[in-house]
Amino acid sequence: MEDRKRVLAGVVVPDTELVRAALDYAQCVYEPYLLNHVIRSWLFATSLASIQNVEHDSEVVALGTLLHDITLNTSFRGPRRFEVEGADIARSFALDAGVSISRAQLIWDSVALNSTPSIALYKEPEVALCTAGICLDVVGLQYDRIPAMAREAITDAYPRLGMKVKMTSCFCHVVEVAMETTYDNFLRDFGLRYVPGYAGPSSVDLVMNAPFES
Fold first, then answer.
1. Between β-strands 5-8 and 11-14, what pairing exists: parallel, antiparallel or unpaired?
2. What does 110-152 look like in DSSP terms, one character per residue?
3. Close Cβ partners of 2 (under 8 Å, ≥ 6 residues apart)
4. Is 55 helix (H, G, I), strand (E, B) or coil?
5. Terminal-to-terminal C-alpha distance of the chain
6. Burial of 101: CB neighbours in 10 Å, binned 0-12, 13-18, 19+
7. What is the DSSP letter of 178?
8. 40-69 burial: b if 16+ Cβ within 10 Å, else e
9. pLDDT digits (tens, 9 = 90+) for 119-157
10. Which of 12, 25, 53, 204 is deepest in the core (most CB within 10 A)?
């Protein structure tokens, strides 16, 4: 891995051919608010790693964060959870770029589990950091770990551009077009609040109606 670095919004990040390619790809596929979100997530993840002195593969964290919402758009139609569909794309991108299978799998895990912090935060450092950076940007998880001036430098350089409303709209789109992918995850909450007629099966009913005597 190259050891070239550069500074974005006060954060030192890798400036390797792989990371540049991922950033170029992100700039091509994301609308502006999502592009800024994935870059902020990357910078927050990198900042948390520095603050907590976490050893990690910086290229894996870069790709895991930059590519984590690759399928969060109005063209998404399923058939699997958007995180899983996106994880496959991210892994293919990494493998095509010459990344080893083990590192590409960490990228897959980082994307697939980015919205499941109750699992991802306890996995490998790269997966945990990706999820931490993403969750910080979306819901404010560990918000106070990063000094205010550092946070502001990142959000000034990469503004949020109405992310809460725009992301909610995308979440609701996924619920509407691929409802069966939302019953066991956070999208269920968006369906229940914003999508008329949304109703998912109960886990209790699934257990009680299993085809066994007891």
1. antiparallel
2. HHHTTT-HHHHTTS-HHHHHHHHHHHHHHH-TTGGGS-HHHHH
3. 14, 15, 16, 17
4. coil
5. 55
6. exposed
7. -
8. bbbbbbbbbbeeeeeebbbbbbbbbbbbbb
9. 999 999 999 999 999 999 999 999 999 999 999 999 999
10. 25
